[in-house]
Amino acid sequence: MANREKNKKTLLELVKLPENSCCADCGAADPDWASCTLGIFVCLNCSGTHRNLPTVSRIKSIRLDFWDDELVQFMKANGNRPAKNFYEKFVPVFYYQPHTDDCEVLREQWIRAKYERMEFTEKNTERPFTAGVYEGMLWKKGKDNGQFLERKFVLSVCDFTLKYYKEDESKGPKATISVKDLNATFQPEKIGHAHGLQITYCVDDHTRNLFVYNKNGQEIVNWFNAIRAIRHIYLKTAFPTASDRDLIPWTTRNYLKEGYMEKTGPLQREPFKKRWFILDSLDRKLLYFKTQLDAIELGVVFIGSENHGYSVRECVPKGTRGNKWKCGVIVETPDRQFVFMCEQERDQREWVEVLKTVISKPMMPQDYTTEANIRRRR
């Protein structure tokens, strides 16, 4: 007969081991759940996905559920490290491995890819997102009425482009986008769909957005990793001496912060207008749009380093016109002063904090080119 307290104590000792102290799937600290069929420890969020894989994974609480002696011995014989070595042995270097704060579809498909489809247990397995061409249908937000319409997209390695087509493909692509500045980030809340993906690119130094989704979770994550794959190939071609460690952060990236602030003009006498801001920390750009689902940016502020005359601070501006919000942020650049207003003090503190993070980092050689291009636009 199993000793309930003894087995519970054993499990709690196992989960404290360094190799088991974080979720096997998303890295969250102090997991309280375990898959007694896979021999891994997972967090509450990831345990939910495992419950949807009954033929693969059986989930139990390490604190509340009853454990047989045989299951405890199985957990002792396995654990997160051996599982990682087996199920993640051949994960492509560009493949995105989700973290605890990533959206549900990324975490779910990562778990399904590992344990249900076993995509990474064999070397050189052909995957749809690693082919030279990846194509399919995505629902894209329309420019005029804001409705999402189904469009064909084609991602091609041979010319490093992403193309999409309207109904009549014989007329050629509606747009041909270079992958040189391509980025993709999941935005389910902003887009209003659990599989919402924001694709960003540059045209004549101006940033543009595409908002898309696919009803199938596996398909949208395949698209995301296909973009990462082609970006990785492009970066390896453009920077042949750079290591994967240096290139991977540039394949795709999440933005450091997004949200509404009010903005005034260069003379600071113009009325304040509400704008949606995005801080791209890698490109050192503070982009602003009329709304959060606008396709084309209205403007951009380059965020340089402290050594080059950039700074940020909280403020309470006086004599401003038209502003409804009172929590100010001032960004000083070598050329001018920018004044932004936040709705709440928490937003103000967060914007100052993330801007200071960018300003504290030294500028890279490519940043000087970005700075010069933005200055030429004014």
From TrEMBL:
Keywords on record: Cytoplasm, GTPase activation, Metal-binding, Repeat, Zinc, Zinc-finger
Organism whose genome encodes this protein: Phoxinus phoxinus
SMART domains: ArfGap (SM00105), PH (SM00233)
InterPro entries to which the protein is assigned, alphabetical: Arf-GAP_dual-PH_domain, ARFGAP/RecO, ArfGAP_dom, ArfGAP_dom_sf, PH-like_dom_sf, PH1_ADAP, PH2_ADAP, PH_domain
Domain Arf-GAP: 8-128
Protein name, entry field: ArfGAP with dual PH domains 2
Signal peptide feature range: none
GO aspect biological process, one term: heart development
